[in-house]
Amino acid sequence: MARLRLGILISGRGSNMRALIDACSKGLIDADIRLVLSNESSAEGLAHARSSGVTTSTVSHRDFADRAAFDAALHRELKRAGVDFVCLAGFMRLLTPGFIDKWRDRMINIHPSLLPAFPGLHTHRRALAAGVKLSGCTVHFVRAETDTGPIIAQAAVPVLPDDNEENLAARVLIAEHRLYPLALRLIAQGRVHMEGERAVIRAPYPASAALLNPPD
Ligand code: GRF
After folding, report:
1. In terms of pTM, does the model score above 0.85?
2. Most buried of 12, 25, 97, 112 (most Cβ within 10 A)?
3. Catalytic residue at 48?
4. pLDDT per position as a tens digit, 101-125
5. What residues does each domain of the chain span?
6. Catalytic residue among 48, 61, 75, 111
């Protein structure tokens, strides 16, 4: 499988982007990060990417009349940088079906819940309100509807009785920083293939025990 040429799309803090950059620079993922692109010039993650020697650029959605024009500019910028695989990492713009189609099975996202539960915004607030005992995060290929698409990998974390949005988000984020590099590594190794609309991971696949919360 050809070495991935990555574009990472961010809008803010960029801690997941950082986890991907770190894993690539340690050689854990066989991929070149060609570009970190943000729709916000003030995104914290941009400075970190630059300090790691990664090329960055900003395409502001405010400079375009509609989503389609913005997405066309994103696409041009990614192509110009030679990107052939896109990682969304806290990118806060809805993408048009046309753009998503162009990157079908070449674009992944991380979402802080066990999808298909709690897609969209205010994920942790809704998980707490529902009283779930496990939450977590999901890496998936991107499809037209927000936070849907074939699931590549998930991590579960317990929801504890005294949790609020903030500490649940922090616990899930720790799992995100492990899960996103892991999922990308599987893709870079050519171990993820599609069976219809399911992403299947080739062996060797570690069998692990179920996580029970509360423990018995
Ligand atoms: C993460 O929780 C990610 O799952 C969600 O947005 C947040 C981005 O955080 N899509 P960061 O910018 O990666 O720190």
Report:
1. yes
2. 112
3. no
4. 999 999 999 999 999 999 999 999 9
5. 1-103, 109-216
6. 111
